Amino acid sequence: MKTLSTQVVIVGAGPSGLLLGALLHKAGIDHIIVERQSGDYVLSRIRAGVLEQGTTDLLDYAGVGKRLHAEGLRHDAFALIFKGAFHRIDIAKRHNGRHMTVYGQTEVTRDLMDHRMQLGLETVYSVGDTVVLHDFDSEHPRVTFTKDGEACEIKARFIAGCDGYHGVCRASVPAGSIQNFEKVYPFGWLGVLSETPPVYHEVTYSNTERGFALSSLRSMTRSRYYIQCGIDEKVESWSDDRFWDEFKKRIDPDAAKRLVTGPSIEKSIAPLRSFVAEPMRFGSMFLAGDAAHIVPPTGAKGLNLAAGDVNVLSKAIIEYYQEQSKAGIDHYSARCLRRVWNAERFSWWFTSLMHKFPDTEGFGQKIQEAELDYLVNSESALHSITENYLGLAH
Ligand code: APR
Ligand code: PHB
């Protein structure tokens, strides 16, 4: 058995694990990342792309903000469509210039991977499903796995579970020590990425009698669009033509006329789920990001919540080593969960407001339209939605 030692072993090289690694390294704390997939596979996953200012500040601090500032798009507003009409919601003017940045999660991941490569930090890729956690109820936890047929062990002081919703870390906690809270929605999102100019230049959420649609972008020549679809639908039954026909019916008529369509470069269906595991700390093991919680993508909070966790966790571990204090690690779970539940509430509310629900069709649609009408005409409601969209403090 090959044995290595480090201070923190991070399971998962998604955005949470990579960002935690960058922050620990900056503070002089050793770590090793172990990842199920190859680096190329991790980079092939297309995810959301709207970053809060707290997230871009953290990426800057970690030393990976350069391309984000050069290529990311500053967004001062988003928009809502209902009853066929378009309403622009200005965020920045209500919150002293605070804004969002549109920059794909795939690009954040690429920047973090390049940064790791430049620093020569160790990432063990392609370990498949072989990771096993040991003794995390003690101060001497270990992680074992198999790499290229060789049995390996890493001894550490802490384990960071950054291995996403389907990871091994949360699954290793005894059932009696963890509580899961979950809501599954009765629909999915069909997403398309295409090399076409975006029909709206700001992220635009549509409520229609046919269901929800979202218009987003990655650049002025690349669009990211979504439509609400049935939970059991297969992506193969959605040709590009069928997607564009349906999408056009869910945006305002002027936009439908100017919409530029083209071949999809990515097309996939994702289920919508709200999920929180409590607590987020088990002895020497900490959950962060999707390993601990999932939000439905309406509102784009997933990656921002992950960044918030990693910020708190890195500070807690740094405090442990630099000040010999356990206060940060003892407060990690409660500090994160407060912010997580705030974002869960917002994402659930925004999802409920914008989607067509099978059980409340006619009445539900009218109630949603009444709430949206109130929202766009009430300064206090607009202040509240934009405050939540910006993200509550990290
Ligand atoms: N062993 C090692 N690695 C694993 C294991 C395992 N048993 N299980 C999963 N992983 C890896 C996955 O392959 C993936 O690369 O953990 C990583 C988890 O990454 P993500 O799922 O991207 O989760 P996270 O890093 O928390 O990212 C936050 O924000 O916008 C949201 O869902 C979106 O992924 C995004 C998330
Ligand atoms: C995206 O650009 O993929 C995106 C934007 C806003 C969301 C979700 C996803 O709420």
Bound molecules: adenosine-5-diphosphoribose, P-hydroxybenzoic acid
Quaternary: single chain
Distance between the termini: 41 Å
Number of helices: 12
Strands, count: 21
Strand content: 25-35%
Helix residue percentage: 25-40%
Which structural class best describes the helix and strand composition?
alpha/beta
Describe the sheet with the most strands. 8 strands, mixed
Molecular structure report:
With 394 residues, the protein is of the alpha/beta class. The protein is built from 12 helices and 21 strands. An 8-stranded mixed β-sheet has the order 7-6-15-16-17-14-18-21, sandwiched between helices. Helix 1 packs parallel to helix 5 (105-119), helix 1 (15-26) packs parallel to helix 9 (302-323) and helix 9 (302-323) packs antiparallel against helix 10. The protein is globular and about 65 Å long. Bound molecules: adenosine-5-diphosphoribose and P-hydroxybenzoic acid. P-hydroxybenzoic acid (PHB) is lined by residues 48-50, 203, 214, 216, 224, 297-300.
What is the element layout, followed by pairings?
Elements: E1 2-5, E2 8-11, H1 15-26, E3 31-34, H2 39-44, E4 50-51, H3 53-62, H4 66-71, E5 73-75, E6 77-82, E7 85-90, E8 100-102, H5 105-119, E9 123-124, E10 132-134, E11 142-147, E12 150-155, E13 158-161, H6 168-171, E14 179-194, E15 204-207, E16 213-219, E17 222-229, H7 240-248, H8 253-258, E18 264-278, E19 281-282, E20 285-287, E21 293-294, H9 302-323, H10 327-354, H11 361-377, H12 379-390
Parallel strand pairs: 1-12, 2-3, 2-13, 3-9, 6-15, 13-20
Antiparallel strand pairs: 4-8, 5-8, 6-7, 10-11, 11-12, 14-17, 14-18, 15-16, 16-17, 18-21, 19-20
The structure holds adenosine-5-diphosphoribose and P-hydroxybenzoic acid.
The site of P-hydroxybenzoic acid (PHB) has 11 residues, from strand 16.
